[in-house]
Amino acid sequence: GGDHTITYPILQALAAKHGPVGLVHVDAHTDTGAGALGEKIYHGSTFRRCAEEGLLDCGRVVQIGIRGSSYEPDPYKYCREQGFRVVPAEQCWMKSLEPLMREVREQLGDKPMYISFDIDGLDPAYAPGTGTPEIAGLTPAQALEIIRGCKGLNIVGCDLVEVAPIYDVSGNTALLGANLLFEMLCVLPGVKTL
Q1: DSSP 3-state assignment of 20?
Q2: Which CATH number goes with the domain that contains 113?
Q3: Rounded (10°) angle between helices 140-148 and 172-186
Q4: Would residue 192 count as lying in a domain?
Q5: Is Chaperone there in the keyword field (predicted)?
Q6: Which pLDDT score is estimated for 63?
Q7: 51, 83 contact by CB (below 8 A)
Q8: Could you list the mean pLDDT of each consecutive 10-residue stretch along the chain, which spans 194 residues?
Q9: What region, left, alpha or beta, does residue 117 occupy, with left being phi > 0 and alpha being psi -120 to 50 degrees?
């Protein structure tokens, strides 16, 4: 729940315990903006603030499903400079993400990592109830492949953000979000599933 700023204090607490963590970040946006309306902390700056504070193990950050509007001519420049791997949505279209997740698992290794899932990473055809929808996003099946692809990693926490009930007239976004959170709980270390 909440907007993506909630991930910032969570990662502060996790980094205090584990040191810098890896990150699987599913989103339509990189959330690495410098600021907005004179504020440094907002839902579009979360991962810039985290990188600046050393909360992330930047060589173990993967952002998946990125697309949509930007204020920069090279919207992934900051991410690349930090060492993040950016996987734009168009690299995910019409294919299974299992091969990608094998690469991600190898990149993340066995050190602590976090999953942060913005519901707008999914196409608004499936999840319209969000404040910043962007067309041409991921499918629910691809979302499951990403989450299930994290099973066995050293997951120290996870979140699902940006569900906006006021825009969710069908209830589909809430249903999808709840199921994705359930899937995240199922891949946490020590959880036994069938």
Answers
A1: coil
A2: 3.40.800.10
A3: 20
A4: no
A5: no
A6: 98
A7: no
A8: 92 98 98 86 93 98 93 90 98 98 98 98 98 97 98 98 96 98 97 86
A9: beta
The length of the chain is 194
The reported pLDDT for the residue numbered 37 is 81
- Structural domains in the chain (count): 1
Q: pLDDT exceeding 70 applies to what percent of the chain?
A: 99
Q: Name which of 21, 26, 8 is nearest 137 in CA terms.
A: 26
Structure tokens at 120: 């707008």
Q: How far is CA 32 from CA 76, 94, 126, 168, in A?
A: 9, 27, 25, 26
Q: What pLDDT, on a 0 to 100 scale, did the predictor assign at position 171?
A: 97
Q: What is the pLDDT of residue 1?
A: 61
Q: Which domain holds residue 182?
A: 6-187
Task: DSSP for 117-163, please give it.
Answer: EEGGGB-TTT---SSS--SS-B-HHHHHHHHHTTTTS-EEEEEEE--
Cα–Cα nearest to 97, from 73, 121, 77: 121
